[in-house]
Specification:
The chain is of the alpha+beta class and 392 residues long. It folds into two domains: 329 residues, 2-Layer Sandwich (60s Ribosomal Protein L30, Chain: A), CATH 3.30.1330.10; 51 residues, no CATH class. 30% of the residues lie in helices and 23% in strands. A hairpin with a 2-residue loop joins β7 and β8. α4 crosses α5, α6 crosses α10 and α9 runs antiparallel to α12. The relative contact order is 0.17.
């Protein structure tokens, strides 16, 4: 039976993509979280190049709808952060947290996305870069492309390409082995460098989230926000409204804004962690597409990864699960469920990583461990309530 995620034309496994690229060169270190290239810029064997591209995905459709409903153009600022962080924090998983060059690619339907939105997107890029500089993280904008492509983009598509050159000796290549512990960093709450509460949703699973959370007349009022080929049974099939108020710890937030919480960057935290503990880190996984099963793609030898002390699941995921009636097995594969970054290390270093994360008001904890596996197939075991969810 197809999951609801697949029925909406998307996939947490990205099986078609992986099938298409299976014959491509995997770079210098196949188990690294990002493809590592030789130093094509300086031709220095002690250095390497990293290039990465990603977008905010279908979250732009939700931003468009919220903006049209409320007039709040600030939600586009979060979209820019989503698109940038999906690049930079993937690169951080191989140890790259500084001196990153960005180029933007914005495609829009000019009839629906006017110059005020373009200005908001461009201004937000500069603002994010300035904020990171204040946190001792250097990112440089090289320019970009803005295209009016209404024939192929229904609302807007916001993406970035990132590039960096770094020493090979500074690389973190995944070597996940039995005996290591897993430190999880929270995607939710309010980090010291954030201006408001973050629901933790990030940029993955938004196709499921927006269609399961929201309903009513949105399907007729905003047909430009979904593919016309999608079965109408699965389009905006929820019960909520974008402006419904949700109470979290005594504060009230619009449901639409919670679903649009920008993807948190961990760059400032990781830069401080790497300062003293880079050599003690044996793997970093950014739980984006694939959620808690994502680590399986980066195991270079068979292991069993046990996650039996996960951080709290924030309210946004409880709301989605309740509205959708989706099994927890699918939820943990589609969403980060509140734990978006995993660091594989030893017990002593784990305590230091938790301490540093807490300096930034980010919750962190040892969420599990790596064990030997009896057969030759890696697997992830997630304990939730009274169930063990197994991915392999």
């Amino acid at each position: 039976m197809s999951s609801k995620y697949n029925l909406r034309g998307v996939s947490a496994d990205k099986e078609d993509v992986h099938a298409a690229i299976r014959s491509l060169d995997k770079g210098l270190y196949p188990s690294a979280f990002c493809k590592i290239l030789p130093d094509l810029v300086g031709n220095d064997p002690d250095f390497c190049n990293i290039m990465h591209a990603d977008t905010a995905g279908t979250k732009t459709s939700l931003a468009y709808m919220y903006w049209k409903e409320t007039g709040d153009i600030s939600v586009w600022k979060g979209i820019v952060q989503d698109a940038i962080v999906m690049n930079t924090d993937d690169m951080a998983c191989v140890g790259c947290v500084d001196d990153i060059v960005l180029s933007s690619t914005i495609g829009r339907n000019k009839a629906l996305i006017g110059k005020e939105v373009l200005s908001a997107l461009i201004d937000a890029t500069s603002e994010f870069i300035d904020n990171m500089k204040n946190l001792d993280v250097n990112i440089y904008l090289s320019g970009g492309e803005t295209a009016d492509v209404g024939d192929i983009v229904r609302t807007a598509d916001v993406g970035f390409t990132a590039f960096a050159r770094m020493k090979r000796s500074d690389l973190i290549v995944n070597r996940i082995r039995p005996g290591q512990v897993i430190v999880g960093l929270a995607s939710y709450g309010k980090a010291s460098y954030e201006t408001e509460y973050n629901s933790g949703i990030g940029s993955n699973g938004l196709t499921m989230a927006r269609h399961e959370l929201f309903g009513g007349d949105y399907v007729d009022r905003y047909p430009e926000t979904f593919a016309p080929q999608t079965n109408r049974e699965y389009v905006y099939s929820g019960k909520g409204r974008l402006t419904d108020e949700i109470n979290i710890a005594g504060q009230s937030y619009p449901l639409g804004k919670l679903a649009l919480s920008p993807t948190r960057t961990f760059l400032p935290v990781l830069k401080l962690i790497f300062k003293d503990f880079r050599a003690s880190i044996h793997g970093i996984i950014h739980n984006t597409g694939g959620g808690h099963s994502k680590v399986l793609k980066y195991c270079d030898s068979p292991v069993q990864i046990v996650k039996d002390h996960l951080l709290d699941i924030p309210p946004i995921f409880e709301i989605i699960s309740k509205n959708a009636g989706v099994d927890w097995e699918e939820m943990f594969k589609v969403f980060n469920m509140g734990t978006r970054l995993e660091i594989y290390t030893d017990e002593e270093t784990a305590l230091e990583i938790i301490r540093i994360s807490n300096l930034f008001d980010i919750e962190a904890g040892v969420i599990g461990r790596v064990e030997e596996v009896r057969n030759e197939v890696s697997r992830v075991v997630v304990s939730h309530e009274d169930r063990k969810l197994i991915y392999q």
